[in-house]
Specification:
- By secondary structure, the protein is an alpha/beta fold.
- The chain has 19 helices and eleven strands.
- The strands form three sheets. Strands 7-6-5-8-9-11-10 form a seven-stranded mixed β-sheet, sandwiched between helices. A two-stranded antiparallel sheet has the order 1-3.
- Strand 6 (259-264), helix 12 (267-279) and strand 7 (287-291) form a beta-alpha-beta unit.
- The relative contact order is 0.12.
C-alpha cells in the first residue's frame, strides 16, 4: 500500500472532458535500475561458467552472446520484484485483494489479504475465467496498486526473448501481412463496437478540457487538425500510409478537394474505406483505398504525406528505410505528417509490463513505439527537418476512455460473437491504456516535417501556419 509522503503536493484534478487519476502511484523503474550491475552479470556469469567448467577461452564470447538476452530478461524479472517504489505521494484505499477479485481457480487462492497478484498473472487468469473482477474494470485498474504488483513474470521474460526480439529483428512482408490481417480483419463489427461510426483507430483531439465532447467530435477535431497541419489544398496529391478504414482519406478529398490515396494491408479496411469514399460523395477518380504493403507503394511524387499510428508497425530495424522511402516520394516543397505512439525514456516497470501485454495481445509487431528523441533523430538522419511537435497523450486517454465506454456498452453482442476471452482482452486493453496514456507511460506525438533543403520556403511555411481545431 502506498503511504503519504511528508510534504507531498499531489492533488487530484477533474476536468469534464477527461477522467483523471485516482491513485497515481509511482512505480520503480530505470531510476533504480543499475546498468553497471546488469553489464557485470552479463559479462560475469559466462566467465564464471567458463572458469568453473574449465572451458577453452574461445567459448567465453560465444557463451556471452548466447546468454545475454536470457540474463537481461532474468535481471528484469529480479529487478521488478525487489525494486522499491520511487515515490509515495498518494494513499491507496488499503483494501484486501479479495475486495477487488473473486478467485475462481483454487490455484490462485494464495493471492488474498495483502498478498498482491502480479499484473500479468492476473490478466492471463482473467482472460481464461480463472479470476473474476468485483467492479468496473477501469475502476479496478485505477485501484491497481492496492491489489497488484508490477513485477515481470517468467512467462513475460520468455515471450520477450523468444517472440518479441525475433519479430523485431525480422519484419518481413509476410510477417507484417499476417499480423495486420489477423488483427484488423477480425471483423468490422468488432472494431465498430468501440470505435463508433467514424471507424478511426487513432487518437482524437479535445478542443477544450473543460468542455465535454463526444468521441465523434474529438475525431472530427483531429481530422481537421491533421489537414490544417499539412496545409492541404485543392488539387494536391495526398498519400495516407496506413489509412485504416479510410476516413481521413475520404475526409481530405471531400473537405479539401485533394486527390487522396490511402494504403492499408487490411482487406476489410480496403473494402470499407472505398465504400466510405462513395458515402462521402467523392468520385473514384479523386480518392481511393489500395491494399498493399507500404514497401510496394509506387515511387510517385506526392504533395502531402500523412501517416497516423502506422509507423510503429514498420519496426525499429526498418524505420530508417521507411523514412527514406517517404522522403523519396515527397515533393521538395511538400509536408510530411507523422502521428506516432511513443514511450517515455524514464520508464517504470509498469510501462514494460503493459508494453509486453500490448505486443502479445493487441498490436504484435508494433515495436517502433519509442521515446521522442529517438523518433526525431531518425527523421533528422533521414534528411527531414522537424517543423513542429505536439504531445497528445492526454487527448489519447480521453479518446480511449470513450472507446472503453463503447466497448462495455456492447459486451453482450461482442461476447456472443467473439467469446468472453476476446471481450475481456479488449476490456483490459482499453481500461489500462486509458490510464497508461494519461500518466505518460505511453503517449502520442504529432510531428510535421519537410525535407531539409536549403531551398525550402521556411518563411512561407510559417506565414501559412493556421493550426486550430
Amino acid at each position: 500500500m502506498a503511504s503519504v509522503k511528508p510534504g507531498a503536493s499531489w492533488k487530484k484534478t477533474n476536468y469534464p472532458n477527461i477522467k483523471n487519476a485516482d491513485y497515481p502511484v509511482e512505480v520503480a523503474g530505470n531510476e533504480s535500475f543499475n546498468n553497471l550491475h546488469l553489464a557485470g552479470v552479463i559479462l560475469g556469469a559466462p566467465f564464471m561458467i567458463v572458469s568453473l567448467l574449465k572451458l577453452p577461452f574461445w567459448s567465453y564470447p560465444v557463451l556471452t552472446i548466447v546468454m545475454a538476452l536470457p540474463i537481461f530478461a532474468a535481471y528484469f524479472v529480479y529487478g521488478s520484484k525487489y525494486a522499491l517504489p520511487l515515490n509515495n505521494r498518494v494513499q491507496t484505499p488499503g483494501k484486501k485483494v479479495e475486495d477487488y477479485l473473486t478467485i475462481v481457480d483454487p490455484a490462485f487462492q494464495k493471492y488474498k489479504g495483502k498478498n498482491r497478484i502480479p499484473m500479468e498473472t492476473f490478466f492471463e487468469a482473467y482472460f481464461d475465467g480463472k479470476i473474476d473482477i468485483n467492479q468496473d474494470c477501469l475502476e479496478l485498474l485505477e485501484n491497481r496498486h492496492d491489489w497488484s504488483v508490477f513485477q515481470m513474470t517468467a512467462s513475460q521474460a520468455k515471450f520477450f526473448v523468444t517472440q518479441w526480439i525475433p519479430e523485431t529483428l525480422w519484419h518481413s512482408k509476410k510477417q507484417d501481412e499476417d499480423q495486420v490481417r489477423d488483427h484488423y480483419d477480425r471483423g468490422d463489427d468488432f472494431y465498430a463496437a468501440f470505435l463508433g461510426p467514424r471507424m478511426i483507430y487513432t487518437s482524437g483531439i479535445m478542443s477544450d478540457v473543460n468542455k465535454k465532447e463526444t468521441l465523434e467530435e474529438m475525431q472530427d477535431n483531429k481530422l481537421k487538425l491533421v489537414c490544417e497541419k499539412v496545409q492541404l489544398k485543392k488539387g494536391e496529391r495526398h498519400l495516407d500510409i496506413g489509412c485504416g478504414w479510410g476516413t481521413l482519406t475520404a475526409y481530405a478529398a471531400k473537405n479539401y478537394g485533394t486527390d487522396s490515396t490511402g494504403i492499408t494491408l487490411g482487406l476489410n479496411q480496403t473494402a470499407f474505406g472505398n465504400n466510405r469514399i462513395k458515402e462521402y460523395g467523392v468520385p473514384e477518380s479523386q480518392a481511393r483505398i489500395m491494399c498493399m504493403d507500404y514497401r510496394d507503394i509506387p515511387r510517385e511524387k506526392w504533395d502531402k504525406i500523412t501517416c497516423l499510428e502506422m509507423a510503429e508497425h514498420v519496426g525499429i530495424r526498418k524505420f530508417n528505410e521507411f523514412l527514406l522511402q517517404v522522403k523519396d516520394m515527397l515533393n521538395d516543397d511538400g509536408l510530411f505528417y507523422l502521428q506516432i505512439a511513443g514511450l517515455r525514456a524514464t520508464w517504470q516497470y509498469e510501462d514494460f509490463i503493459w508494453g509486453l501485454f500490448m505486443a502479445k495481445y493487441v498490436f504484435p509487431g508494433a515495436d517502433a513505439s519509442m521515446p521522442l528523441y529517438w523518433v526525431i533523430k531518425q527523421l533528422e538522419c533521414a534528411g527531414f527537418e522537424v517543423q513542429n511537435v505536439d504531445t497528445i497523450g492526454v487527448h489519447y486517454s480521453a479518446t480511449i476512455h470513450r472507446w472503453y465506454l463503447n466497448w462495455m456498452s456492447n459486451q453482450e453482442s461482442i461476447t456472443a460473437t467473439y467469446g468472453k476471452k476476446w471481450f475481456r482482452t479488449w476490456e483490459i486493453f482499453l481500461a489500462w491504456s486509458t490510464i497508461i496514456s494519461r500518466q505518460g507511460s505511453a503517449t502520442c506525438y504529432q510531428i510535421v516535417a519537410h525535407k531539409n533543403l536549403n531551398a525550402f520556403d521556411r518563411t512561407g511555411l510559417q506565414a501559412k501556419n493556421r493550426f486550430s481545431v
